[in-house]
Amino acid sequence: MKILVTGAAGFIGFHLSLRLLERGDTVVGLDNVNDYYDPKLKEGRLEILHGYDDFSFERLDLADREGMESCFERHDFDRVVHLAAQAGVRYSLTNPHAYIDSNLVGFTNILEGCRHQKVEHLVYASSSSVYGANTSMPFSIHDNIDHPVSLYAATKKSNELMAHTYSSLYDLPTTGLRFFTVYGPWGRPDMALFLFTDAMLSGKPIDVFNHGDMRRDFTYIDDIIEGVVRVTDRVAEPNPQWSGDDPDPGTSYAPYRIYNIGNNSPVELMDMIGALEDCLGIEAEKNFMPMQPGDVKETYADVEDLIDDVDFKPSTPIEEGIASFGAWYREYYDR
To answer: Rounded to an integer, what distance in angstroms lies between the CA atom of residue 64 and that of residue 6?
Structure first.
């Protein structure tokens, strides 16, 4: 298959592109390689991808309407995995327009490209952040999610609504994936594990929000990629049992699906820090701080639909995942 992977220079997009190339797919990667975090890390990922004959790259901004139209017209994509987005909850508090341009305008351009080129299946990244003020655990795709607590989360929920519209109007199969705290080698420098590792190896304190009273469904990158690949191969179909009298948010009368991809096993933040301390052989100096605006205390993924539909459940233990990340970090940064 010929697959467009947006955000190919990013953390998840890089790993997905590698997996698809290694199984024999042709991959067109798209990314604007912005400076939200160190572009050298993004260029390093791309350098590896360029080693594959079946990989080509489009350096392009999602919000560039003409550029996106041209990209879809020049390529005959079978499927699209849309991972590019302006990420991060805290960054959305100070740079809201970046989220509108990338996550809303950019997503519209993706939907239009898929519609006009009759792409077989659009798979796109949503986020566990969409659960917002929900406190019923574990988070289920069948629950209402009308109370986001960050602009980032609001744009991701908007993506799900926009995708449903295109599935309904144009019979475009779409599947949204709510990722839960993804980590691993080549990870994002703005994520807690990366920040903690850098600080600890530099002899600096780490900032621990909500005084450490937080739980996250940390999900290892290999598990995320396995889930994405299986879902991409399973084209979304209508749910024949769907009823407008009791609408199920996770499915539809249209070819539209939502899945959680999380480890289904929340870890206390202090336990994650303990595992990192064991990995690095360093006791962290902790700077305990209050909860940050837009953040949530706990995430926990219900993955029953993922298991039922694609026979997969993430399972990598946090200790194993952190060990892999730590080994990569020390080698990559020579520390």
So the answer is: 14
pTM: 0.96
pLDDT greater than 80 at residue 221: yes
Q: In three state form, how does the secondary structure of 25-52 look?
A: CEEEEEECCCCCCCHHHHHHHHHHHCCC
Q: Distance (Å, rounded) from C-alpha 92 to C-alpha 294? A: 9
Task: Please tell me whether residue 247 adopts helix, strand or coil conformation.
Answer: coil
3-state DSSP of 122-164:
EEEEEEHHHHCCCCCCCECCCCCCCCCCCHHHHHHHHHHHHHH
Distance CA 188, CA 10 (A): 8
Token representation of residue 310: 């694609």
Q: Which of 139, 232, 208 is nearest to 180 (CA)?
A: 139
Alpha-carbon separation of residue 89 from 14, 86, 189, 293 (angstroms): 22, 10, 14, 9
Count of CB atoms within 10 A of residue 179's CB?
A: 23
Collapsing DSSP states into helix, strand and coil, what is residue 243? coil
Q: Are 218 and 321 in contact (CB under 8 A)?
A: yes
Mean pLDDT rounded to a whole number for the chain:
95
Asked if residues 215 and 137 have their Cβ atoms less than 8 Å apart, the reply is no
pLDDT at 93: 84
Instruction: Catalogue the active-site residues.
Output: 152
End-to-end Cα distance, the chain: 40
Question: What whole-number distance in Å separates Cα of residue 86 and Cα of residue 301?
Answer: 22
pLDDT of residue 294: 72
User: CB count, 10 Å around CB of 261?
Assistant: 29
Question: pLDDT tens for residues 15-45?
Answer: 999 999 999 999 999 999 998 889 999 999 9
For the chain, helix (H) and strand (E) counts, in that order, are: 12, 13
88, 169, 187, 232, 258 from 158: Cα distances, Å: 16, 16, 26, 21, 13
How, if at all, do strands 215-216 and 267-268 pair?
A: antiparallel
